[in-house]
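Help! Submission page says 'invalid entity' but I think these are all valid:
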Amino acid sequence: MPQVYTGATALPLWTLYLAVVVGGVAGATYAARRGFDVIGVLALSVTTGLGGLLMRDILLARGPVVLRDSGFIWSAVGAAVVGFFFAGYIARFDRVLLALEALSMGLLATVGTDSALRAGLGAMSAIAVGTIVATSGPLFRDILGGDAPQLLRPGVLLGVIALAGSCLYVAVEAWTRQPLLSQILVILAVFAGRIVALRWHWETRPAEDLASRAWSRWSRHGQTSDD
Amino acid sequence: MPQVYTGATALPLWTLYLAVVVGGVAGATYAARRGFDVIGVLALSVTTGLGGLLMRDILLARGPVVLRDSGFIWSAVGAAVVGFFFAGYIARFDRVLLALEALSMGLLATVGTDSALRAGLGAMSAIAVGTIVATSGPLFRDILGGDAPQLLRPGVLLGVIALAGSCLYVAVEAWTRQPLLSQILVILAVFAGRIVALRWHWETRPAEDLASRAWSRWSRHGQTSDD
Amino acid sequence: MPQVYTGATALPLWTLYLAVVVGGVAGATYAARRGFDVIGVLALSVTTGLGGLLMRDILLARGPVVLRDSGFIWSAVGAAVVGFFFAGYIARFDRVLLALEALSMGLLATVGTDSALRAGLGAMSAIAVGTIVATSGPLFRDILGGDAPQLLRPGVLLGVIALAGSCLYVAVEAWTRQPLLSQILVILAVFAGRIVALRWHWETRPAEDLASRAWSRWSRHGQTSDD
């Protein structure tokens, strides 16, 4: 454990700033499209961009790491300014933003998982922290925006991929012992998974569907064996 | 104060795991019945099961006690699996789940209050922490599920009983100085209170009702004494 | 940095208790008017009154400062009792409550910003913390009450003024090095700004309006120079 915990990962810090900018722009355009005002755009930019990293600091209780480095706030504020003035323009580049969001979600998952492992938490807790860090931004955005969180409803595999990425990072890092390699690998895997899911419309199904399907298959199987 | 704070109470740790499982199953079935997907069921199981204990760790700022013990996460994940596949089945045992929830709410209230007292907080703050720990799970479930929190609306005495249990624990523990005895007593009292409230449909009334009633009684009393 | 961090500011502690009472009464009357029950009124009083200060303690990770001083909880509980019984009565003094809320928002902004500066954070982070501390109470109230947060939507300049107050405090405090003077100055400025905004109906505009306006002006300007 380092003497002063900085939350640093193997990848350079600017990648994390970039993730904050991407999340911030996504939050700001979301707010701008719904007609929020200056403070709404700013708040949703900061919340969506920094929400995940703030949750990491709160959950791991290692001090306000994100707040100590003003680069993070500047990134979120810059994203808010961009989102405020160019929301309509950015909307035309939906695909670019989706790709950037996929990359930054992978990064956040590895950063969260890695921070938790370095704080001495076990694999399960690290996976939980990684998933929370990767998904808190959009989650807080929906809560502050007054929407029912999209993350939890059936749809494109957002949370599943964040969870899978966190699991993968724990496995790869335990196996290779190379944080940098593991981070890059997981980010690429998360990116690929997200793009594939979007392209082929892979979606998660509601829970009860699967449950009743499992039951009905079981009972049919039971009937056949009885016959 | 212990050197490494473990958040342990007089009752053995498995009781707390059980409370997490009960909360987790409640959260998972809630999610499954509303058609959430895998990640929704998992997220609501973890949030409902662990939300209270996570709030304790965040409010008392004594480190991620819950995250350090992977037993807690396993309990919540196990509950999610059960809730995902058996949501329809569990729904038939409404009463059993209600009884278990009443027991685990009592336990969480005592654990929260006890942790706060051991962290050196005063009685009032300990009661606040106990009530928050006992009620945060269902509260977070409603917020994540996109519902207006049921806790705060008139209905069965959920929050009132959590508050009463926390008050009772402070009083009994100060009087007997026996944490184990106090815990068991409070859990039984909370259980009894919850069951009685459900059976006889004791409900809290909206605030203004009571206020205007108090005023009208006062004014009537004033008139009578004037006559 | 003091040995035991108390979160104290230059202004005496009772001013902060008063801010908690004002926020608590606002939260309690909000809850009472919407027909919440005892626990709803209590919860919204505590959340609205203490939400900002709790967020400060959570974000700065300096221990449960607010919870250690039971004066804060008593203030919130007292406010809940007042709000519960006098919600209808208080509603008649809308202007007084608005003025008190403006004063307490200014105080909370300076307290948040000052605490962050004393914790060694930079100016940007301190401004963010100040704004969060000043606005979290009403924000949490809306989330718990099941409303879409008013703070983020176009309307009276609530968040903008909290943000401006935090910026002003950083500037004035850096310039004068006199926390007490800076606090009083900022509180008066926030109060004046809020009252002026209410009186002359200064409102923030939705984001896209401004963006398209900026664009259309730019393009018109471009056309003119082309002609």
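Support: the input was valid. A stray whitespace character was the problem, and the output above is from the cleaned input. Residues 94-118 of chain C form the longest helix (25 residues).
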